[in-house]
Specification:
heterodimer; A: alpha+beta; two-stranded antiparallel ribbon; 9 helices; 52% helix; globular; B: mainly alpha; three-stranded antiparallel beta sheet; two-stranded antiparallel sheet; 57% helix
């Protein structure tokens, strides 16, 4: 059975532009037991992980998607004639981190945490579709309320917001930093 | 960042521009002095902080207002701590508490920042099929809405550049939309994709430049090409759409 559904799943993921969720796969393969599908996905992932393959099956943004392997990055850039991919500016990354940890949140709250006016950076992040507006807050001035988007997860290869470090993990890292410093 | 740190005679100097904001600078000073965040010696930190601000030759209000705000806060806290009190302060009445809370919160964000940066570094080496411009699907409408706005913005930028050239043509040749569209398509066939800003710049007259912009809009509308602009005021890249299915249905 696994051998029969494995190529089907492979095809489904292949034609998907967005990461394909396990639920969607299960929807297409009606009647196939969930464990069977999970097993097939696991088998596919393992096959692609082999050094003989230039493509891997990864989990990102809560779904499955094919990507190239990091070791081939240089060749792909040469092929596409791209010197390097642009990274987020430190202001953008800082604003994004603030949204991620305080969401749902407003411009005023974000600016207060950062100590810097974040109106412009938020605009850039919206343009990049890394954050989205989910409505307005019932407060004076009815400020816009922001959340991180699906693309945010995909961009950082996360599957859900739960994968962001927790308060305890952050405190631990801070403690370690302090211990390292003489 | 490279040139931001210089070793001067008095040792380690860092320009204020490298800091994301006043809290970033404050955290840096605290770390440098190896001070416990919960027990900041306000007087000496204020002195250091103001020292950094003093290095600025001129004040850029847009950016420095935030630095000055924290400076004012530091001085206020310092004054609060100097004032004699009738009775000793309870622990939670420490005038530094507001600042400490903000620093602790900001410090957390900084940790998240560095973790996310690591993830970005990893992810940036993985290429997915959606790296190339996405096939327009249901989201086409708002995609168009946004990019039309961007296109118009870019158009004004290009117009300004063109206008600045200020040379006169006695009698410009007449160019029709059809001719320009054919020219763009021919260029696309030959080169695969087109840097529109570049193409625009090659136009001889303002009229021609005008017509080529409208041709681009026309080509996008008829779904013959994609136009992608990654950032505002950056160039617009144009691709020929290779999607026979879509052509049939439209």
């Amino acid at each position: 059975m696994t051998d029969r559904i494995k190529p089907i799943i492979e095809a489904l993921i292949f034609i998907s532009q967005e990461p394909l969720t396990a639920d969607k796969i299960k929807g297409v393969l009606e009647g196939v037991p969930a464990e069977e599908i999970d097993g097939a996905i696991a088998a596919l992932t393992e096959e692609y992980a082999s050094d003989a393959r230039g493509i891997q099956l990864i989990q990102s943004g809560g779904g499955y998607v094919f990507s190239t392997k990091p070791e081939h990055d240089a060749f792909i850039r040469r092929h596409l004639q791209i010197e390097r991919k642009t990274k987020l500016s430190s202001a953008a990354l800082e604003t994004l981190s603030t949204v991620a940890y305080h969401q749902p949140t407003t411009q005023a709250e974000i600016s207060a945490v950062r100590g810097v006016d974040s109106t412009y950076t938020l605009k850039t992040l919206l343009q990049k579709k890394l954050i989205k507006i989910i409505g307005r807050k019932k407060a004076p001035g009815n400020p816009l309320v922001y959340r991180t988007s699906e693309k945010f997860l995909q961009y950082f290869g996360l599957n859900s917001l739960d994968e962001l470090p927790s308060e305890e993990e952050i405190s631990k890292i801070l403690q370690e930093d302090k211990d390292i410093e003489p | 960042m490279e040139s931001a740190e210089t070793n001067a005679a008095e040792g380690y100097q860092v320009k204020i521009e490298v800091f994301e904001g006043p809290l970033d600078l404050l955290l840096f000073l605290i770390r440098k002095k190896k001070i416990e965040i919960h027990d900041i010696p306000i007087a000496s930190i204020t002195k250091d902080y103001l020292g950094y601000l003093d290095r600025k030759e001129q004040i850029n209000l847009d950016r420095e207002a935030e630095f000055l705000f924290i400076a004012a806060l530091l001085i206020y806290i310092k004054s609060q701590m100097l004032l004699p009190r009738e009775k000793n302060l309870a622990e939670n009445e420490d005038p530094r508490q507001v600042l400490v809370n903000r620093l602790l919160e900001y410090q957390k964000i900084k940790v998240v920042c560095s973790l996310l940066r690591e993830k970005e570094d990893d992810q940036i080496q993985l290429w997915r099929r959606d790296f190339l411009p996405p096939l327009p699907g249901e989201s086409e409408l708002d995609f168009m809405e946004v990019s039309l706005f961007d296109l118009a913005e870019s158009f004004f930028v290009m117009m300004k550049r063109k206008a600045a050239e200020d040379f006169r043509v006695i009698k410009g040749k007449d160019v029709t939309l059809e001719e320009k569209i054919r020219e763009i398509l021919a260029a696309l066939e030959a080169e695969g994709s087109l840097d529109f800003l570049d193409f625009f710049g090659r136009q001889e007259t303002l009229e021609e430049a005008f017509v080529s912009f409208f041709s681009l809009l026309e080509l996008i509308k008829s779904r013959t090409v994609y136009a992608v602009q990654e950032k505002l005021f950056q160039t617009i890249r144009v691709w020929l759409r290779k999607d026979p299915h879509r052509k049939k249905t439209s």
